[in-house]
Amino acid sequence: MSTGQVFLTLASLVLLGYIVLNIHRMYAGSVESTVDMQMTSDAVNFGRDLSEEIQSYAYKYSQLDADFADLDDPTDPNARRSDTSQVGQIFHATVNLLDKADLLPDMAGNQPGKIAEIRVYEEVDDTLQFKAELVTSVIDMNSGS
Fold it and tell me: 106-134 as b/e, with b when 16 or more CB fall inside 10 Å?
């Protein structure tokens, strides 16, 4: 084999190695992106579940403050809601209830209600990272307007 053929073979092996390395790097980046999107989706779904639970208080509105007003500190296990995703990631949610005298201004009369700000955090290495925020409202369906 001549010197030119040896260099050509080495160059082709280096090029092949470079292409394989880049393909593996792209695959790893894709997997990481997919996992991150799934974590965000799980956080939003946890917040959405909590939002639906809050909205279910329309007919038991008087219990809303008792059940959710103290869920305002993501660092206190007694003042937050927690959930574990299917892959073992832990999420914590807080709820901030805001009084709103008239949620539906187009209706005749005032409709008592509250706005709930839900914040979801992901627990990563004993620290909390903000992941999602949802805002919902609940009106008192028992009040006559």
Answer: eeeeebbbbebebbbbbbeeeebeebbeb
